[in-house]
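User: quick one, sequence for these C-alpha coordinates?
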Protein backbone atom coordinates (compact mmCIF):
# COMPACT_ATOMS: atom_id res chain seq x y z
CA UNK A 1 0.00 0.00 0.00
CA UNK A 2 2.86 2.37 0.58
CA UNK A 3 3.62 2.34 -3.16
CA UNK A 4 0.54 4.42 -3.87
CA UNK A 5 0.68 8.13 -3.04
CA UNK A 6 -2.88 8.29 -1.69
CA UNK A 7 -1.92 5.83 1.06
CA UNK A 8 1.22 7.61 2.17
CA UNK A 9 1.08 10.10 4.99
CA UNK A 10 3.12 13.23 4.91
CA UNK A 11 4.83 13.43 8.31
CA UNK A 12 4.95 17.24 8.23
CA UNK A 13 1.23 17.63 7.57
CA UNK A 14 -1.06 18.03 10.59
CA UNK A 15 -3.53 15.27 11.31
CA UNK A 16 -6.73 15.92 9.35
CA UNK A 17 -8.84 13.94 11.82
CA UNK A 18 -8.10 16.28 14.73
CA UNK A 19 -11.25 18.13 15.80
CA UNK A 20 -11.38 21.84 15.12
CA UNK A 21 -11.32 24.28 18.03
CA UNK A 22 -14.67 25.60 19.14
CA UNK A 23 -15.76 29.10 18.23
CA UNK A 24 -16.51 31.45 21.13
CA UNK A 25 -20.23 30.88 20.67
CA UNK A 26 -19.86 27.09 20.58
CA UNK A 27 -17.53 27.20 23.56
CA UNK A 28 -20.15 29.04 25.61
CA UNK A 29 -22.91 26.74 24.33
CA UNK A 30 -21.17 23.52 25.37
CA UNK A 31 -20.15 25.01 28.72
CA UNK A 32 -23.80 25.92 29.33
CA UNK A 33 -24.98 22.44 28.36
CA UNK A 34 -22.46 20.91 30.77
CA UNK A 35 -24.15 22.75 33.63
CA UNK A 36 -27.72 22.16 32.44
CA UNK A 37 -26.82 18.48 32.08
CA UNK A 38 -26.55 18.33 35.87
CA UNK A 39 -30.29 17.83 35.86
CA UNK A 40 -29.57 14.32 34.57
CA UNK A 41 -26.59 13.71 36.87
CA UNK A 42 -22.86 13.70 36.16
CA UNK A 43 -22.91 11.83 32.83
CA UNK A 44 -23.60 14.82 30.51
CA UNK A 45 -20.84 16.94 32.04
CA UNK A 46 -18.46 13.97 31.93
CA UNK A 47 -19.11 13.36 28.24
CA UNK A 48 -18.78 17.06 27.40
CA UNK A 49 -15.57 17.30 29.43
CA UNK A 50 -14.02 14.26 27.76
CA UNK A 51 -14.94 15.27 24.23
CA UNK A 52 -14.54 19.07 24.31
CA UNK A 53 -11.85 19.74 26.96
CA UNK A 54 -9.14 20.19 24.33
CA UNK A 55 -11.32 22.16 21.92
CA UNK A 56 -12.46 25.09 24.07
CA UNK A 57 -10.99 26.57 27.25
CA UNK A 58 -14.31 27.83 28.65
CA UNK A 59 -15.96 24.46 28.03
CA UNK A 60 -13.04 22.66 29.68
CA UNK A 61 -13.21 24.87 32.75
CA UNK A 62 -17.00 24.82 33.14
CA UNK A 63 -17.56 21.15 32.32
CA UNK A 64 -14.92 20.23 34.91
CA UNK A 65 -16.66 22.47 37.45
CA UNK A 66 -20.03 20.89 36.64
CA UNK A 67 -18.57 17.39 36.78
CA UNK A 68 -16.96 18.03 40.17
CA UNK A 69 -20.26 19.33 41.50
CA UNK A 70 -22.59 16.67 40.11
CA UNK A 71 -20.53 13.51 40.69
CA UNK A 72 -20.90 13.07 44.50
CA UNK A 73 -24.63 13.88 44.70
CA UNK A 74 -25.39 11.63 41.72
CA UNK A 75 -23.59 8.71 43.36
CA UNK A 76 -25.41 9.43 46.64
CA UNK A 77 -28.78 9.59 44.85
CA UNK A 78 -28.11 6.25 43.15
CA UNK A 79 -27.24 4.66 46.50
CA UNK A 80 -30.33 6.19 48.13
CA UNK A 81 -32.51 4.88 45.31
CA UNK A 82 -31.25 1.36 45.96
CA UNK A 83 -31.76 1.82 49.70
CA UNK A 84 -35.31 2.96 48.97
CA UNK A 85 -36.09 -0.69 48.29
CA UNK A 86 -35.46 -1.56 51.94
CA UNK A 87 -38.72 -2.16 53.80
CA UNK A 88 -39.83 0.32 56.50
CA UNK A 89 -37.00 2.87 55.97
CA UNK A 90 -37.05 2.91 52.19
CA UNK A 91 -39.38 5.91 52.01
CA UNK A 92 -36.83 8.04 53.89
CA UNK A 93 -34.16 7.21 51.33
CA UNK A 94 -36.58 7.87 48.48
CA UNK A 95 -37.27 11.35 49.88
CA UNK A 96 -33.52 12.00 50.28
CA UNK A 97 -32.86 10.93 46.68
CA UNK A 98 -35.62 13.25 45.50
CA UNK A 99 -34.24 16.17 47.51
CA UNK A 100 -30.79 15.58 46.01
CA UNK A 101 -32.26 15.60 42.50
CA UNK A 102 -34.16 18.84 43.22
CA UNK A 103 -31.01 20.51 44.57
CA UNK A 104 -28.97 19.37 41.55
CA UNK A 105 -31.64 20.73 39.24
CA UNK A 106 -31.81 24.13 40.94
CA UNK A 107 -28.05 24.63 41.14
CA UNK A 108 -27.51 23.36 37.58
CA UNK A 109 -30.06 25.79 36.16
CA UNK A 110 -28.58 28.72 38.09
CA UNK A 111 -25.08 27.83 36.87
CA UNK A 112 -26.24 27.24 33.31
CA UNK A 113 -27.92 30.64 33.12
CA UNK A 114 -24.81 32.44 34.38
CA UNK A 115 -22.47 30.51 32.07
CA UNK A 116 -24.77 31.21 29.11
CA UNK A 117 -24.15 34.90 29.79
CA UNK A 118 -20.43 34.21 29.33
CA UNK A 119 -19.56 34.43 33.03
CA UNK A 120 -17.73 31.55 34.75
CA UNK A 121 -19.58 29.88 37.62
CA UNK A 122 -18.23 28.31 40.79
CA UNK A 123 -20.52 26.22 42.93
CA UNK A 124 -20.44 27.22 46.56
CA UNK A 125 -20.14 23.62 47.74
CA UNK A 126 -17.81 21.75 45.42
CA UNK A 127 -15.29 19.03 46.24
CA UNK A 128 -13.00 19.55 43.20
CA UNK A 129 -12.24 15.85 42.85
CA UNK A 130 -11.05 16.27 39.25
CA UNK A 131 -8.20 18.74 38.75
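Assistant:
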Amino acid sequence: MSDYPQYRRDRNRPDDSAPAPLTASEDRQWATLAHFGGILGFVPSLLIYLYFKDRGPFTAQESKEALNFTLPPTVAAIVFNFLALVPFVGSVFAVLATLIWIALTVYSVIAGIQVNRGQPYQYQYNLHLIH
